[in-house]
C-alpha cells in the first residue's frame, strides 16, 4: 500500500442500496471502489485487484467467518471492515485476534462511515509489513478455548505442551503461539524428535551436527543456537530417549535463570505429542521432572470427530484455499457433501479432511469422492458393530466352530471372516448403484477388473 489519499476499496454487499451508498462516499473522497454482489466473484478477483481495504455488508455469521478466513489466507495484512451488529461476528473477530478487522454499525451516518473508513486506512498504512499468522479455523467451544488461551500467552515465556491425535494440527497451534508472541520476529525452529534420534545417535543435544530442521539450514551445528531468542518446537516429544530427556532437562534449567545476564539460552520451548505423556511417566518411560517442566501450559487439541460443528467452516476454508491455489473459481461444496462429512469419523482428523477437499477441488469429482466416503463410513460401522453384517444365528455358528475346531488357525478364521465382510460390501456397492459396475468400482476404490473378479469369486448375481 502506498501512502496516498486515493485507495482501491472492494465492496461486497448483496444490498444494492448500500453498495450505492458506499460507492458515493468513496468516490467523493477520490477512492476507487470495486463493487460485488456475490461472494464468489469477489474472492475470485481479490488477488488481482490487490485492494487497500475490503468492506463487507451484512452477511450471516457463517458466510462472514468464511469470507474473513479466506481473505486472511489470501493476504493476511489486508484490512477488512464488516458492517454488522451480530455478536457472533464480534466474538469471532475477538477470539481470532484479528486486529485489522473492524466492525461498524449498520446505521452509521455518511459522515461517521467516512470517518471509520479513514481511520482504518490510516492505521493500515502504519501496519505495513505485518508478519503473517497462521489461522486456527473453528468456532466450537474447545477451539474458542484454545484461541483464548493463546491470546493470553503473548508475553509469557513458559514452556507449553500441545497434545492431540495425529492430524489435529499441533504444528499449527505451535506456529500460532509463536506468531502471536513477542518473539514473532525471531526464529521458529521445528525439530521432529524421531528424526533427531535417528540422526543424532550419541551426539550431545547441544551440538547435533547435521539434522533436518524446519526454519534454518539443513546442515547446522546446534539447534539451540539456531533458535536463540526465538521458539524451539519439539514435535513428538514422547519419542525422546532417556539421554536426550536428560539433556533437554538441563537445557530448560539453563533457560530458567532469573538473571538475564546469566542465561545461556533465551528460547521458548514448545513440545507436542500424540502419546499420553502422563502414562509414559507412570510406566517409567518419560522423566517425571521433565514432564512437569514441559507441562506448565497444557493445550489439548480435540479430534475432529469431537468438534463436528467446525467441519463446515473447515471445509469452506480448504475449498477456498485450493481454489485460489489452482486458479479455479470459488464455489461451495453441496449440502449433501457437508452432511456426509459431519457423519464421518475422520480417523485422520483435520489433515484427512484437508486432503479430501484437495482431491475434490483438483479433480472436480465431488460425487465420486463422497461415494468413497460413504463406503468408508459403512466399513467403520460394520467393523465396529458386527451385528451389521452377522446375524445372531451366524454369530452362534462362529462360536460353535471355535469350540469344536481341532486344528484352529487364527489366520484361516480371520480370512474367512474378512471374505464374508468383503462379499457383503461388494454386494452392497452393486445394489446401491443398480449394478452399475463402474460406479461400484469407484465406490469400492478398486479397479473395474478387480470388481469383475470379485463378482465371479463370490458368485454374485443381479436380482431383477
Structure summarized in a few sentences:
This protein has 20 helices and 10 strands. It has 464 residues and is an alpha/beta fold.
Q: What is the second-level CATH architecture of the largest domain? A: 3-Layer(aba) Sandwich
What is the count of structural domains?
A: 3
Helix tally? Answer: 20
Can you write the helix and strand succession as a string?
EHEHEHEHEHHEHEHHEHEHHEHHHHHHHH
- What's the alpha carbon Rg, rounded to whole Å? 28 Å
Any descriptors?
3 domains, 464 residues, alpha/beta, five-stranded parallel beta sheet
Write up this protein.
Helix 19 crosses helix 20. The protein contains 20 helices and 10 strands. It has 3 domains: 8-126, 3-Layer(aba) Sandwich (Rossmann fold); 141-300, Rossmann fold, CATH 3.40.50.300; 308-457, no CATH class. The protein has helices at 16-28, 39-49, 61-74, 87-95, 110-126, 141-151, 170-179, 193-200, 223-226, 242-255, 277-282, 288-294, 311-326, 335-343, 349-363, 366-384, 392-404, 410-432, 437-444, 448-457; strands spanning 8-12, 32-36, 53-56, 80-83, 101-104, 160-163, 188-192, 231-235, 268-273, 297-300. With 464 residues, it is an alpha/beta fold. Strand 3, helix 3 (61-74) and strand 4 form a beta-alpha-beta unit.
Describe the protein's topology:
Layout: E1 8-12, H1 16-28, E2 32-36, H2 39-49, E3 53-56, H3 61-74, E4 80-83, H4 87-95, E5 101-104, H5 110-126, H6 141-151, E6 160-163, H7 170-179, E7 188-192, H8 193-200, H9 223-226, E8 231-235, H10 242-255, E9 268-273, H11 277-282, H12 288-294, E10 297-300, H13 311-326, H14 335-343, H15 349-363, H16 366-384, H17 392-404, H18 410-432, H19 437-444, H20 448-457
Parallel strand pairs: 1-2, 1-3, 3-4, 4-5, 6-9, 6-10, 7-8, 8-9
Helix pairs in contact: 2-3, 3-13, 13-15, 14-16, 16-19, 18-19, 19-20
Amino acid at each position: 500500500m502506498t501512502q496516498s489519499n486515493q485507495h482501491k476499496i472492494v465492496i461486497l454487499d448483496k444490498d444494492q442500496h448500500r453498495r450505492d451508498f458506499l460507492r458515493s462516499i468513496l468516490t467523493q473522497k477520490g477512492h476507487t471502489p470495486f463493487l460485488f454482489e456475490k461472494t464468489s466473484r469477489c474472492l475470485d478477483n481479490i488477488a488481482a485487484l490487490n485492494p487497500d481495504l475490503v468492506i463487507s455488508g451484512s452477511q450471516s455469521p457463517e458466510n462472514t467467518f468464511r469470507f474473513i478466513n479466506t481473505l486472511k489466507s489470501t493476504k493476511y495484512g489486508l484490512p477488512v471492515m464488516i458492517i454488522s451488529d451480530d455478536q457472533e461476528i464480534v466474538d469471532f473477530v475477538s477470539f481470532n485476534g484479528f486486529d485489522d478487522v473492524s466492525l461498524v454499525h449498520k446505521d452509521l451516518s455518511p459522515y461517521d462511515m467516512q470517518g471509520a473508513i479513514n481511520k482504518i486506512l490510516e492505521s493500515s498504512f502504519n501496519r505495513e509489513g505485518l508478519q503473517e499468522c497462521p489461522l486456527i479455523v473453528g468456532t466450537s467451544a474447545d477451539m474458542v478455548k484454545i484461541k483464548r488461551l493463546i491470546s493470553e500467552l503473548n508475553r509469557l515465556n513458559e514452556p507449553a505442551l500441545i497434545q492431540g491425535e495425529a492430524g489435529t494440527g499441533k504444528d499449527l497451534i505451535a506456529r500460532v503461539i509463536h506468531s502471536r508472541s513477542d518473539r514473532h520476529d525471531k526464529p521458529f525452529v521445528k525439530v521432529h524428535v524421531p528424526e533427531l534420534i535417528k540422526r543424532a545417535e550419541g551426539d550431545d543435544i547441544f551440538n547435533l551436527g547435521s539434522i533436518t530442521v524446519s526454519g534454518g539450514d539443513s546442515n547446522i551445528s546446534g539447534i539451540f543456537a539456531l533458535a536463540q531468542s526465538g521458539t524451539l518446537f519439539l514435535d513428538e516429544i514422547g519419542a525422546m530417549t532417556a539421554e536426550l530427556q536428560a539433556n533437554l532437562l538441563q537445557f530448560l534449567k539453563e533457560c530458567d535463570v532469573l538473571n538475564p545476564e546469566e542465561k545461556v539460552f533465551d528460547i521458548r520451548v514448545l513440545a507436542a505429542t500424540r502419546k499420553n505423556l502422563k502414562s509414559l511417566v507412570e510406566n517409567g518411560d518419560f522423566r517425571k521432572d521433565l514432564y512437569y517442566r514441559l507441562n506448565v501450559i497444557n493445550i489439548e487439541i480435540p479430534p475432529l470427530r469431537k468438534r463436528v460443528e467446525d467441519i463446515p467452516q473447515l471445509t469452506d476454508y480448504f475449498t477456498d484455499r485450493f481454489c485460489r491455489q489452482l486458479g479455479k473459481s470459488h464455489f461451495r461444496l453441496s449440502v449433501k457433501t457437508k452432511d456426509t462429512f459431519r457423519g464421518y469419523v475422520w480417523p485422520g482428523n483435520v489433515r484427512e479432511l484437508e486432503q479430501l477437499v484437495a482431491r475434490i477441488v483438483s479433480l472436480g469429482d465431488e460425487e465420486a469422492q463422497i461415494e468413497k466416503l460413504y463406503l468408508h463410513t459403512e466399513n467403520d460401522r460394520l467393523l465396529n458393530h458386527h451385528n451389521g453384517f452377522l446375524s445372531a444365528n451366524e454369530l452362534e455358528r462362529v462360536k460353535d466352530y471355535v469350540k469344536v475346531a481341532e486344528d484352529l488357525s487364527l489366520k484361516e478364521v480371520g480370512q474367512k471372516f474378512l471374505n464374508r465382510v468383503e462379499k457383503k460390501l461388494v454386494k452392497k456397492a452393486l445394489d446401491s448403484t443398480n449394478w452399475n459396475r463402474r460406479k461400484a468400482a469407484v465406490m469400492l476404490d478398486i479397479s473395474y477388473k478387480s470388481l469383475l473378479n470379485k463378482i465371479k469369486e463370490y458368485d454374485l448375481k443381479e436380482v431383477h
